[in-house]
Amino acid sequence: MRRWVGALRAAATVASGPCLESGGFRTRFDFGSRDAASWFPGHMAKGLRQMRASLRRADCLVEVHDARIPLSGRNPVLQEVLGIRPHLLVLNKMDLADPRQQSRVLEQLRQQGCSYVVFTDCQRDSNVKKIVPLVAKLVNSSPRYHRAEVRRGREAAAWICPLVEHSNCTSPCFQSTEYSIMVIGVPNVGKSSLINSLRRLHLKKGKATAVGGEPGVTKAVLTRIQVCETPLVYLVDTPGVLPPKLADVETGMKLALCGAIRDHLVGEDIMADYLLYVLNQQQQFGYMELYGLPEASDNIRHVLKYVAVALGKTQKVKVLTGTGNVNMTMLDYSAAAYEFLRAFRAGRLGRLTLD
Predict the structure, then answer these.
(1) Rounded CA gap, 177 and 190, in Å?
(2) Where are the alpha helices (DSSP H) in the chain?
(3) What per-residue confidence (pLDDT) applies to 207?
(4) Which of 2, 232, 330, 343 has the smallest number of Cβ neighbours within 10 A?
(5) What are the CA-CA distances from residue 182 to residues 49, 78, 179, 191, 304 (Å)?
C-alpha cells in the first residue's frame, strides 16, 4: 500500500550528489531508478466502487484538481469514467498558483481533450459563480443525456427537461427539473470546499460537508447536497481517490507537496528539498526575505537552518560527555522542514505552479 514511500525517502541520499548548473542550482532532482507505487488505502477502493454505483444518477461530473499541479496526478481511473458524462474540470486554489501559467495550462489541457476548465479560489468564492451556468449548458447540450424525451413521473423529470428552453413551462414535470452532479478528484484539492462555496453563493447557507487541510477527510460517497435553488442543483461529495499506480516518483512528490498524500508517509525533509529545488528552478526566491537568507541556496540543510532560527524551532537533546549527560538546545530541522512546507501551502513563498 505504501511501497513508493521508500523510493521517495531514498531521494534524500541520491540528492546529496546533485547535478548542478553554472549558477549553482540543480538542473534536475534525481529520484534514483526505483519504481513508484502509491498510497491507496481501503476507503479509496470502497469510495471508487460507490462512485461507480452512483454514476448512473449523475448528469455531470465536476472534477476538482489543484491549480498548482494542473497536469500531474489526475487519476486516470476517474478519467476513464469521465468519457460517459459531461465533464467540467475545476482547478481550485488558483490563489496559490502562478497566474502567468494559466494560458499555457489551458492550451495543454485542450490538447488533452479537456475543453471546459474553470480556475477557482473557494476560500474567496472567486470564479465559483461560473460553475452552475456552465454545468447547465453542458448537460443540456449533451446529445446522450439531453433532456428532450418526456418520461413518466415527476421524479423522472429531473433527467429529461432542458431548464433553459422550458424555464417558463407550467408542466409539473418541467417544474421538477433538477441537476445532479458528482464531484470527483484526488484527495485534498477542495471538493468539499467547492460544495460549501456554492452553497454560500446560491443559498446563503453555511457548511454542508466537512473540510480539512489533510487528505482523507471525506471517506465515503455522501448523500446529495443542494447547492442552488434556481436552477435546482444537487452535488454529491466523494472521497479523494489517488491512482492505484503513480506514473513516476516526481508525480507522487508533487501530490505530496500539495497535500494529497500525508506528509509523514513521504518525509518532510525530502519534500522540503524538492520544494527548494523547484523554487530555485523557477527563480522564486521569496524564501530569502522570509527567513533572512543573505542569498539563494540549493542546500536544504543550510536553508532549514535559517528557517529554524527565524521561527525559533529548537529541541532539547541529551549529550553524553566525560562529566555525564548534558542537556543542550539544538535547532530542530524536522520542525523547520514542516514549517517550510506550510509556508508553501499558504502561499508565503510566492505563487507557484509545479507543472
Answers:
(1) 28
(2) 4-14, 42-54, 76-82, 102-111, 131-141, 172-175, 191-202, 249-257, 263-266, 268-281, 286-291, 300-311, 333-345
(3) 60
(4) 330
(5) 14, 12, 10, 10, 42
